[in-house]
Amino acid sequence: MTRGARPGTGLPEADRSGLIGRADRSGPALLLAGHGSRDPRSAATVATVAERVAAARPGVTVRPAFLDLSAPAVDRVVDALARAGHTRIVAVPLLLGNAFHARVDLPGLLAAARRAHPLLRVDRSEVLGPDPRLVAALADRVRETSESSARPLPVAGQRLGVVVAAVGASSAAANARTRRVATALTAHTGWATEIGFATAAPGVPDAARRLYARGADRVVVAHYFLAPGLLTDRIADSAPDLAHTAPLGTHPALIDLVWDRYDAVAAPCALSA
After folding, report:
1. pTM of the shown model
2. For the chain, how many structural domains are there in total?
3. CB 122 within 8 Å of CB 63
C-alpha cells in the first residue's frame, strides 16, 4: 500500500499530482467506477489502473471509486470532486460486462449524485466490454502464460483450446454478451474457445472438457477479469491442472479503452447518461 494511503484503495488521503489536478483544468474529471471486492488485490489493481490512466493525460483529474465492498465509495468521490470545484464528471465503469452493477447500481448512484449536486453535470460511459482491444489483450495474456510455462503453445499440427473464464450473471443477455468474447477470440487467433463462468453454467471444468472433446491438445484458462480476487481463485482451484492467465489488469489496451470511453461522452455536445 502507498504510504499514507486510505486502507483498501492504494491511494493517499491527500490529492496526488497526476491523479488530482486543478478543477476542470483540461476537461471533465474522470471517475473510474470499479466493482469492489473483499479481496485487497482488487482495489490495489484498480489503484494501479487509475495511476496508468492518469499518467496518459496528466491534465485530467482521475479518481477511482467503488460500487461495493471497497473504499472510497462512488458518492464519496463525487462529493469530493464537487467540493474541489469540478463542474462536470465522466464516470467510466471499470466493468467488462453489462450486468446488474452496470445496469442498476451505477446509474442509481449517479442519479443520487445529481440530486445532491444539482450544479454538477455527471455523465456515464458504456462499460469496457466487449471490445476488440480486450480480445487482443486476452490473447496477449494467453501468449504470456505460454512463454512463462514449461509447456509452450502447441506446435504446428497441435490444437490449443482456450476457456474464456468470466464472472457469469443472472442475466442471460449479459452472459450472451460475454460469450461473444470467446467467439471473437477464435476469430482473432484461430484458437478453439469455450466460455466458462465462475457463478453460472457452464463452469470452467465443463468448458475444458468440451475443448478436449473437440480435439484440443492443450487447454489454457484465459481470465476475462480486470483484477485477481476471490472468483479468479475459485476458478483456478476448480481446474488446478490447467494453465491460467493473469487478469487483464493494466494491459495498455485497457488504458487506451478507458480514454476512448471517456472521450465518447466528454465532448460538450454529449448527452448526459
Report:
1. 0.85
2. 2
3. no
CATH (domain of 147): 3.40.50
Q: Distance from first CA to last CA of the chain, Å, rounded?
A: 34
Instruction: Provide the 10 A C-beta neighbour count for residue 111.
Output: 13
3-class DSSP assignment, residue 124: strand
Gap between the Cα atoms of 57 and 142, Å rounded: 29
pLDDT tens string 81-137: 999 999 999 999 999 987 777 778 899 999 999 999 999 999 999 999 889 999 999
Question: Do 97 and 190 share a structural domain?
Answer: no
CA distance 254 to 115: 31
* Nearest-angstrom CA–CA distance, 124 and 128: 12
List, for residues 30-62, the tens digit of each pLDDT value.
999 999 999 999 999 999 999 999 999 999 999
- Residue 162: CA atoms inside 13 Å, Cβ hemisphere, count? 31
Residues 84 and 142 in one domain: no
Asked, for residue 117, whether it belongs to a domain, the answer is yes
Tell me which residue has cell 472438457: 209
Amino acid identity for residue 250 in this structure? T
**CA–CA separation, 239 and 149 (whole Å):** 16
By three-state DSSP, how is residue 204 classified?
helix
User: Considering the domain boundaries, does residue 6 fall inside one?
Assistant: no
Q: Give the residue from 235, 244, 96 showing the smallest Cα distance to 179.
A: 96
User: In 3-state terms, what secondary structure has residue 38?
Assistant: coil
Measured N-to-C along each axis, helices 132-147 and 172-189 cross at an angle, to the nearest 10 degrees, of: 60
Under 8 Å between Cβ of 195 and 166 = yes
